[in-house]
Design goal:
- By secondary structure, the protein is of the alpha/beta class.
- It has a single domain, classed as Spore Coat Polysaccharide Biosynthesis Protein SpsA, Chain A (Alpha-Beta Complex).
- The protein contains eight helices and eleven strands.
- It has a seven-stranded mixed sheet, with helices on both faces. Strands 5-11-7-8 form a four-stranded mixed sheet.
- Helix 2 links the parallel strand 2 and strand 3.
- Helix 6 runs parallel beside helix 7.
- The radius of gyration is 19 Å and the shape is globular.
């Protein structure tokens, strides 16, 4: 695949988001930036997504692939990797099928990457849409470097192609079937690489809708604790990537391990990390 240094690739992942998909696709087509490539990757949706996608086949690249897992995050990552394989832009904007971009996003992101050659990832703080209400996404202050930061959603992540390639080579997207790609990129870029910008500007609308890839997880449930354990182990693993950083086991980590040990004893089941 020939890489175009002046092109931005928007990678859209979709599974049964037909209700929102047309708005999502139109928001990409209406961008002020001209050299934009739009790739939608669909997990063989069973709703009206195919009907919606068909309207745009002459304007976007369409890729379809069956689910590879019962775990939503693994399917999402697999679709993004598929889109990456067929993309040709030097910069990649990630987008979920139920979210949408504001009109100037791609142009602003493109200019920022052009002016900041050392920056690998740009985050924009989205507007969160719940029904008809909008609110600003807020970052929480966290002082423990061995805990993950507030996770900025997938649709608000733009990254250089080289950074995505680095993540693939280092196995950042491998294992840990409960961890979404936004968690992985946030942690790796913000805690380890530290070559990022967070824009205090709304360029994306993130829909707070039911049916998200991990929407069924209730706080303090068995799977909630299992996911938290995976998050800690992931943090430990990526700190090993950077020899200048050392992962210190903290109280939260220890308590999470204890809770998972107890819950596995009672439920007599486990969730694979691979």
């Amino acid at each position: 695949m020939h890489i175009n240094n002046n092109k931005i690739s928007i990678l859209i992942t979709n599974y049964n988001k037909g209700k929102f998909l047309e708005k999502c696709l139109n928001s990409c087509l209406e961008q002020n930036q001209k050299n934009v490539e739009i790739i939608i990757c669909d997990n063989i949706s069973t709703d009206d997504s195919q009907v919606i996608i068909k309207k745009f086949t002459d304007k976007v690249i369409v890729k379809r692939k069956k689910k590879i897992s019962n775990f939503g995050p693994k399917n999402q990552i697999d679709l993004i990797k598929l889109g990456y394989k067929f993309s040709s832009g030097a910069v990649i904007c990630l987008l979920d099928g139920d979210d949408f971009l504001l009109k100037d996003k791609v142009k602003i992101i493109s200019n920022l990457f052009e002016r900041n050659k050392k920056i690998e990832v740009i985050y924009d703080l989205p507007l969160v849409k719940s029904d008809y209400l909008y609110k600003k996404f807020k970052l929480k202050k966290k002082f423990n470097q061995n805990i993950w930061p507030t996770i900025i959603p997938t649709s608000s992540i733009s990254l250089r192609r080289n950074f995505f390639s680095k993540c693939l080579k280092l196995g950042i997207f491998s294992n840990y079937n409960l961890l979404e790609i936004d968690f992985r990129i946030n942690v790796f870029s913000r805690n380890v690489e530290k070559k990022f910008i967070i824009l205090d500007k709304n360029l994306t609308v993130y829909r707070n809708v039911h049916g998200g890839i991990m929407d069924n997880i209730k706080k303090f449930s068995y799977i909630w604790w299992a996911k938290r354990e995976q998050a800690h182990f992931f943090m430990r693993d990526i700190y090993k990537v950077n020899q200048k950083k050392y992962f210190y086991v903290n109280a939260d980590f220890i308590f999470t391990l204890i809770m998972n040990f107890i819950l596995r004893f009672f439920y007599k089941k486990s969730l694979h990390r691979n």
